[in-house]
Structures are given as C-alpha cells and as structure tokens.
C-alpha cells in the first residue's frame, strides 16, 4: 500500500478588485469591492472572501453600487441598465427585486437617502433618476448639462448633484415645481460633495473639484461662502474625526489634511507614488482606506497617516514565487508587472516593491539567508534585495525611504549583462562561496559570485560582475536549477534538451557535464531529486522524464497530463512528485510505481510555479501560482486523512459489532433503528433480509410502527434505492407492503420528500410486476407443455 499524500486548500488569494467602487460597512468590518460582473465582500482584517453578490450568468459589468446606512440594503447597477436590490443578513445577500434603470448610458454613481427610502442613480446620460424603494417606481428624472460625477443627499428631501463640467445643482425632491438652484463655481470635474453643518446648524456642503479648489455652500440660503485653493487635482475627500479637518487625495499620492475654513494645510504625508482615486474613513475605527489607480487598497492610521496594511486587488498573471523564511513569514511573488509583490503571510498584507522597469519573470531566495532574495526581469537585469530584519536598525535606509511601509526592503545589488529577458535566477544552496546563476532569452548562462553582498546591509547598491558566461542553448532557456550540493546545475530550453553543468566554486567557472534528451517539445522545468542521483524534467509534450545523473539515461516517463507541464516539485523526500500543467491541473505521482495517485483541479489557467513552505512546528505547505492571478496555499493533511480513515474503520467495526449483537439477541427493532440513526442503507438491508430469510416478515410491521417520520422518510428513500436492483428489490417490496399495511396512505403522503421517493419507486415497481407476471405466465406454459408430454 503506497503512502498517502493529501493536499487541501488552506488559503486562496485571488482577484477581488478590478476598478470601480469600494465601500465599507458602518462597522468597518466588511469591505465591498467591484470585480467585473461581481461585487466581492471581504473581511477587512485579513482580506478573506466572505461571499459574492451577483450571478455567474451576469455577463454585464457592475458599474456602481451603494449600501444603506444600516447595512441592510445593497444596490448594484450594471452596464446593461439593470439594477438589482439585495437584502444583507447573516453573511448572505438575498435578491429582493431587479428592474431597468431606463437610462440611456451606464449608471456611474448610486446613493441611498439617509433614511434608505430613496435611491438616486446618476448616469453618463447627464441625468439622475430618483427611485422610491417602498412604492417601487421612479419619482424624478433630474437632468443636467454633462455627465454626473458626484451626488450627495442633504437630508431626505434635497439632492446636490455635481457634473464633469464643474457645475453643481440642488434639487428639491418634495417641490417639483421649484427650479433647481445652479452654481457655476468650478471649471472642472466635481470629484465629491460632502454634507457640512454650518454655524447655527444651517445645512451646507463642501464641493471638491479637480480644478485645484474646493468651495463651501450654504444650502439653505443658496449662497457661496468660500472658494479655497488646494493646488492639486483632487480625486476624493472625506471629513476626519474633527469635522473642521478635510482629508484630500489625488494625483500626487499624498494625503493632505486641511482646515476647512482657513484652507491651511495641517498635515501632509506621501504614502505612495501613484494616483489615489478613492478615500474612505470610519470614525469608529480611526482607519483610513485609500484606493489607488492600479487597484491596490491602502489602510492608513488616522493619527500618523502611515500605511498599516496593503491589499492588492488585481495581480494579473503570476509567474513565480518564493518563500523567504519562517522568521520573516513573507512570500515574494513575481507578476506581469515591474513591481514585485511581497505578502506577509500572517495578515496577507501586500507590499509593492519597485525597482525593475519591465515585468518580473523570476524570484528566488537562498536557504542560508532568511531575508535575502533576487529577482530577474524583462529589462535584462537581476536585482538582489534584502528584507528588513525587524531587529535591525538601518538609519541610512530610513532617511532614503520615500514612503513608509510596514514591510521595508533594501536594494543590495544589481547585475546587468544579459542582452535579453532574464528568464530565471537561482541562488547557490550553501553559504560557502555563494553565487547566483541566471539564464536568459539570449541563450546564455551566467554565474555571478555574491560573496561581497553578505556583509552589505545599507547604503548604495553594489554592482555585480559575472565570473563566467556561456552560450548554453541555441533557443530560449526556460529554467536553471542548482543541485543540493552546489556541484552541478541543469538548464532546460525550448531546443527540447536539458543540459548539465559542472560548477567549480574555487574558480567560479562552469563546464559541460552532459545533455539529457528525449522530449519532443521544449523543456519547461528541471528539478533535482533530494534523495537520489536523479533529475526530473517536464516538457510541452505533456510528459515528465526521470533521468539518472550517473549515465544520463531516462529511467521513467510519466504520462497523464493533457497539456504542457510547466511546474514540478519533489515531495516526501523524493518518493513522490507534484506536477502542474497549463490547463490548471495538478497531479501527484508515485515514483516507485510511476502511477498518478491523485489529480487536483488547482487553477483555472496555467500553473507556473509550485513552492514549498517548510515550517519547524507545523505541517508543510505548498504554494501554487498561475495565469489566473491566484495564489493558493495548500496544506499537507496526509496525517489528518490517515487518522480520520483509521477512526472511520474503528467506528465501522464497532457499528457492525453492535448490529450483530442486536441481531443475535433478536432485537430487530433496535437493530433497524440503530442502522437508520447511522444513515447506512446496507445495515438496514441486512436487518430486513434477515427477517425475510427467517420468514418473520410480520415483525417488520411492528418495527415500522415505532419509527419517527424522519426515520420513515429515510427508510423509504433507502427502499427507492433498493428497488432499482433485482438483487435487492425483494427487501424493498417487503418494506412497501408492510408500510402500506401499517400506515394510511394519507399519513405517508405527509412524509418529507415523499413525492421524489414515489417518482423513483413507481416505474421500477411496474417493471418488477411486469417481469414477475411474465415469469408466472412462462411457468404456467412450461407446466402445460410438461403435462402434455408426460406418459401416463
């Protein structure tokens, strides 16, 4: 019997925000984000997905959504003019109704009135429509002169609307005959409108615009009180705990706090070098949420304006990952972007690391340093990074840091010299005379000594020089892997071969050690076995080959994938092998037999990398990343599965013994009820067959009288299953017979699920009746023939 190896998903990090609206509930515990045709609802603390709002059949994109102040109602608008209203309760969204918005263009903004009785939808067709949610019809059609860009209720009866051309209108919803008041204060897009209580409790509003100013209006007297310059195109603004303090965000990626009346800047903090589109604030938690133009969510402390956490809403395609160490507990991820993503696996906060100019293709970390890692990119360069050890204080780096971040990383060294994209990079396995190997689309393999970076902790980054360069293949090289003893390495190429190279650590040179051939398409990855002198290669020909390093012969070919195999990893000390293909499937192979033990549907697209996470006091975990933008953490639950199987075996043995004891003591009622309590049809069938064989079927009627309605329903369900088989139908018919003798049909029709059970019973019962009738007729005919042939 082969050793059990079982993987189970323990965490999935996937796309949850693709641009658009972002909302927090009133308690700041739940986050609502737009994700294509869905709204995803997440836990604010760790980013876990609670549930989704929307249907998979909805092909149209969600354009806006809003939540009522009591968190009980939720409205989503779609690009096809559909509006859906949901009720929120118990981590679930229930669709109440859906209707057409009758707009001529997509709805861009949606707002609930303070008492949640009205809904305003602002569209790109220059109009705002007001909906009475109780009476379920449109009450107002409010027209403007340009696209609606901002809306704000002033009480329940008045609505301020801002437009992209800078004008603002006030609509009185109770008096339709009154013409709307219009202000032409600004010259550009109105970003947001905030309600403001003026001195004397008069209703007012703050109008923030991209024309680098904000204005204060008295809604009651319709007068403009102030226009104040803020010298930045503002995208969004909120009031902080003090209603006199206005927080603005915009193109500079800087948080600015202003005194609302004087226009004096009270505080300023740069948190990111990109445009911030949205800012949210909840006084209860004192936490600020900023949404950037590249779908990243930044959580900022209200008092210090420093970033406390960051969530990445959209990773795009993920090419590679590497786990640094248990001490840092960070996962470094390379995506189709110049930015490297570093995930804190405790909170799953994501830090974006800038340094490359084009997409990062590969990342790797050495086993001998807990904070060092390297990245390679399409910009032909390699960068070595060092994650900040929390116990270290590097004053030089503190001064040079442009933005404060929870995860701090320093650029240690840069290596240039390749003339094309650097496809893969790998560290040596040992700290003694360390090096980095890199392969490129230019067909070269380079060796970089890195002894001098071991003592480099701050200041200007070092410039690495390659000690050896060789044209390793004539086509693109996809991978490079170093052996566990640092004496040999292997490269895989699109020329259908994998090549072995000797590593001389004294001279830091490489020498050819052999060629492994046999694949019919390009080699995507190669891995050294940890417990033998073998190496595994995977290819676009959908096969895995195990080669011997001693004589370079192919020992085994593993076939079973239907797509190109892109990732490999030895597990269980090399006795098993994990593989993943471009169709998203992952397979577990037993290398003793060459048989696939298990197939797992891992991703929805290509799986580019499998990473092992080793922890001292916990079970091993594995991380897979792919083209679907997902990061999936798999937990090794083999021991749990074995314990559970052993428990089930012991439980089955105990149940069988208990049932046998009831049967020996002729306690048929107890035996049948015991089998029904276990919901095991086989044990029920055993009791009924025993009564039938002993000719004691009358006792079955007595047993049926003592059963509850749920037990009767379960027994009827089992009966319908037995009735489908000619070997067990007799027990089924016996139960039906005594069931009808014991209970009135009207009582049986009250059993739960009886309609479904009867629909299953009737056709097979008719078939059994026809078969027995024919058998009886055939037997009578045979008897007649026999009697006529008999000699008297």
Automatic annotation (TrEMBL):
One biological process term in Gene Ontology: endonucleolytic cleavage to generate mature 5'-end of SSU-rRNA from (SSU-rRNA, 5.8S rRNA, LSU-rRNA)
Organism domain of life: Eukaryota
Pfam family, one: WD40
Cross-referenced Gene3D superfamilies: YVTN repeat-like/Quinoprotein amine dehydrogenase
UniProt-annotated location(s): Nucleus, Nucleolus
Organism: Acrobeloides nanus
Domain U3 small nucleolar RNA-associated protein 13 C-terminal as annotated: residue spans: 656-789
UniProtKB keywords: Nucleus, Repeat, WD repeat
Record-level Gene Ontology MF annotations: U3 snoRNA binding
WD repeat copies, ranges: 100-141, 353-395, 415-451, 470-504, 516-557, 558-599
Record SUPFAM superfamilies: WD40 repeat-like
Name by which UniProt lists this protein: U3 small nucleolar RNA-associated protein 13 C-terminal domain-containing protein
Primary location recorded for the protein, binned into one broad class: nucleus
One annotated Gene Ontology cellular component of this protein: small-subunit processome
């Amino acid at each position: 019997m082969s050793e059990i190896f079982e993987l189970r998903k323990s965490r999935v990090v996937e796309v949850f925000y693709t641009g658009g609206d972002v909302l927090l509930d009133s308690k700041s515990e739940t986050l609502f984000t737009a994700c294509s045709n869905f709204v995803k609802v997440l836990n604010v603390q760790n980013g876990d997905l609670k549930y989704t709002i929307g249907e998979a059949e909805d092909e149209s994109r969600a354009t806006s959504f809003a939540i009522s102040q009591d968190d009980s109602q939720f409205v989503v608008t779609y690009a096809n003019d559909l509006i859906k209203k949901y009720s929120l309760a118990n981590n679930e969204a229930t669709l109440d109704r859906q209707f057409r918005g009758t707009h001529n263009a997509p709805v861009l903004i949606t707002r609930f009135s303070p008492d949640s009785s009205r809904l305003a939808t602002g569209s790109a067709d220059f109009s705002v429509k007001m909906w009475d949610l109780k009476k379920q019809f449109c009450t107002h059609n409010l027209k403007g002169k340009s696209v609606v860009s901002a809306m704000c209720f002033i009480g329940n009866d008045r609505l301020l609307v801002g437009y992209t051309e800078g004008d603002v209108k006030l609509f009185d919803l109770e008096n339709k005959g009154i013409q709307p008041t219009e202000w032409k204060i600004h010259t550009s897009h109105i970003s947001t409108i905030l309600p403001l209580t003026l001195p004397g409790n008069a209703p007012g509003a703050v109008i923030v615009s991209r024309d680098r100013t904000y204005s204060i209006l008295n809604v009651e007297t319709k007068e403009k009180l102030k226009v104040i310059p803020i010298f930045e195109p503002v995208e969004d603004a909120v009031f902080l705990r003090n209603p006199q303090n206005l927080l603005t965000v915009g193109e500079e990626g800087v948080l600015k706090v202003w005194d609302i009346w004087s226009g004096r800047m009270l505080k300023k903090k740069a948190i990111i070098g990109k445009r911030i589109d949205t800012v949210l604030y909840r006084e209860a938690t004192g936490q600020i949420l900023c949404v950037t133009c590249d779908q990243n969510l930044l959580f900022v402390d209200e008092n210090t304006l420093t970033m406390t956490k960051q969530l990445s809403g959209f990773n795009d395609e993920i090419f590679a990952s590497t786990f640094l160490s248990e001490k840092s507990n960070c996962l470094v991820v390379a995506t189709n972007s110049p930015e490297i993503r570093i995930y804190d696996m405790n909170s799953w906060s994501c830090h974006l690391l800038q340094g490359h100019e084009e997409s990062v293709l590969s990342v790797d970390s050495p086993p001998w340093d807990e904070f060092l890692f390297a990245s390679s990119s399409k910009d032909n360069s390699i960068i070595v990074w060092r994650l900040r050890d929390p116990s270290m204080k590097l004053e030089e780096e503190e001064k040079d840091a442009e933005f404060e971040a929870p995860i701090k990383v320093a650029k240690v060294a840069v290596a240039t010299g390749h003339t094309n994209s650097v496809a893969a990079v790998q560290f040596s396995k040992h700290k003694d005379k360390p090096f980095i190997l890199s392969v490129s689309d230019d067909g070269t393999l380079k060796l970089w000594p890195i002894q001098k970076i071991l003592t480099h902790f701050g200041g200007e980054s070092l410039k690495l020089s390659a000690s050896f360069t060789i044209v390793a293949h004539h086509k693109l090289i996809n991978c490079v892997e170093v052996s566990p003893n640092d004496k040999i390495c292997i490269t895989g190429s699109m020329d259908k071969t994998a090549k072995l190279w000797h590593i001389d650590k004294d001279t830091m040179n490489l020498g050819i050690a052999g060629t492994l051939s046999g694949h019919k398409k390009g080699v995507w990855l190669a891995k050294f076995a940890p417990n033998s002198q073998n190496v595994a290669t995977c290819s676009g020909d959908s096969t895995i080959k195990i080669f011997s390093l001693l004589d370079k012969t192919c020992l085994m070919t593993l076939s079973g994938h239907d797509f190109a195999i892109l990732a490999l990893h030895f597990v269980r000390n090399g006795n098993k092998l994990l593989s993943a293909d471009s169709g998203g499937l992952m397979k577990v192979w037993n290398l003793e037999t060459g048989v696939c033990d298990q197939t797992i549907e891992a991703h929805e697209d290509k799986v580019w990398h499998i990473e092992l996470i080793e922890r001292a006091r916990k079970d091993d975990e594995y991380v897979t990343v792919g083209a679907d933008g997902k990061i999936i953490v798999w937990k090794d639950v083999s021991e749990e599965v074995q314990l559970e199987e052993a428990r089930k075996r012991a439980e089955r043995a105990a149940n069988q013994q208990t049932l046998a004891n009831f049967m020996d003591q002729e306690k048929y009622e107890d035996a049948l009820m015991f089998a029904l309590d276990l919901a095991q049809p086989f044990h029920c069938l055993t009791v009924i067959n025993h009564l039938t064989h002993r000719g004691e079927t009358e006792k079955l009627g007595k047993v049926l009288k003592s059963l509850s309605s749920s037990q009767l329903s379960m027994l009827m369900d089992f009966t319908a299953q037995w009735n489908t088989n000619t070997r067990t139908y007799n027990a089924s018919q016996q139960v039906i017979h005594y069931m009808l003798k014991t209970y009135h049909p009207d009582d049986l029709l009250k059993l739960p699920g009886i309609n479904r059970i009867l629909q299953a019973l009737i056709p097979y019962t008719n078939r059994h009746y026809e078969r027995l009738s024919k058998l009886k007729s055939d037997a009578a005919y045979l008897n007649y023939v026999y009697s006529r042939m008999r000699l008297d």
